[in-house]
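Lab manual, section 2.4: Encoding a predicted structure.

Procedure: take the sequence of the chain (102 residues), apply the prediction step described in section 2.3, and record the output as structure tokens. A sample record is shown.
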Amino acid sequence: MATKQQNTSLLERELSKSKPPMLYKVVMFNDDYTTMEFVIEVLETFFAMNRERATQTMLQVHKQGSAVCGIYPRDIAETKVEQVMAFAKHREHPLRCELEET
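Recorded output:
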């Protein structure tokens, strides 16, 4: 019985030492051909934004040249970028989306 408690304490100490995963920003860039409606559709579909937030983010992309769509662990950020790029290519839009370290 004493061994079980000691193992649990050791496990708790090791878990408390682990660092959270590094986070990455998914950034969308403006271009002269992708429609605003398509950008809003992408933000709603892949980043779970409501219409108002998607519109605000789209306007930031349009006016400032880029905007952060979300911050995720690396594997999720990479997946989001791949999904957006494949969706844009399928719909024949040159939309560019990349991940950057936070």
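Check your result against the sample. Residues 34 and 92 are 9 Å apart (CA to CA).
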